[in-house]
Amino acid sequence: MIRALFERCLDPVKLDAWFDANSEQQYTRNLLFYSLFRLMTKVVLRQQTSIYAAYPADKESIPVSVTSVYNKLNGLSIETSAQWVTYGAEQASALIDELDGAREPLLPGFRVKVLDGQLSGRPVSTGSKRLATHKAAPLPGKTLAVFDPPKELIIALYPCEDAYTQERALLGAGLADVEPDDLWLADRNFCTHGFLRGVVDRGGYFLIRAHEQVRFDPLEPMREIGQTETGSVAEQWVELTGKEGRRVRLRRIRIRLNEPTRDGDDRIDLFTTVPAQSADAVYLADLYLERWCVETAFLHLTKALRCEVDTLAHPPAALFAFACAVITYNVLSVAKAALRVAHGEEADNLSGYYMARHISNTAESLCEIVDSEDWTVFHTLAVVDFAAWLLAQAERTKLSRYHKAKRGPKKPAPQRSHDRTKPHVSVARLLAAREKKSP
Known about the structure:
This protein has 439 residues and is α+β, with helices and mostly antiparallel strands. It has a domain at 1-179 and 287-402. Helix content is 41%, strand content 16%. The protein has 16 helices and 10 strands. Strands 1, 2, 3, 4, 5, 6, 7, 8, 9 and 10 form a 10-stranded mixed beta sheet that branches. It is globular, with a radius of gyration of 25 Å.
């Protein structure tokens, strides 16, 4: 299923044609864009540890040296990587729509989008003589990601080569993609007058944690609304005033937490323009917790896949690796959608880690068994027929091999003793001593 999805969403001919049409700084000549993606996918899926290790297997089909491959990666435009993620997400989204495999909307009548930032890679090897003189770990870049919770897709990336760039500086690119009836969920770091007004101007809505620097004028006292699992909820109408004197009327929701956050906060304030008739404050307080789904996606990109390639220090190459991981994650999400349609609630307990590991273990064998030409049928197959084929494969899949592992409650860590004169202990003697104490 995954290989067929890669062939369908990222047809080599169409992908290279797309690169030629959208790349402003580079041309393909001998090294095709799809060849770079194929090499990087092996690294992202943990089949190979690096591009250098993946290169020999594809050496016959790549008519350039491995040095030229690295030079190509280091010269890729970060805008190309961002546009490529959007291109792949559109293909994946169309398939999920055809499968009718999206989850129930978080708020009917709104397209919920979660915005968050992520550092793109922490390489171990510097790959540069200039960086080799620094003991500090290099950071190749930063990205803002937009996540679609019902489809479990990362639908947009806004990358930046300078990892020290404040995330707010990248919000301008995100505003350009705001559409009417979007509902943007974000942390307080993205709560700025410019972003809030920009979302409203484009017909969108927001549910964002309030930042202390954003000033407002209360229009009424706080009103107690109800209770959630995390605490009590109250709200009031307020107005934001920007530098230009323009006012935005919205709701301020206050959640007094039963337990403080890890930062010591005992309350959370939210700003929202969602109409009261569409959702009350209690529902929105619970809805804000869905913002953490993007953190789960980042965790999958790091643990199940390899979005941080420790041998890539140049920002364009590292950001391209991150984009490849996002594309692979979205392909896995399409497969999960097909499995949900075929198996119902049982598919909600699937582990992305086990799925990625299975793909990594079997991908090379599949390439040996099936000729590459046999996959070309999926390039031109109608969307309806391809969706039907996916469902047929999903029905045959045994989900038990991909179930998430169940763990019990965490036990408190035992107290440790330390003796400077004995830096090591014998495990056999410790076990023998424990057996003597037990009855």
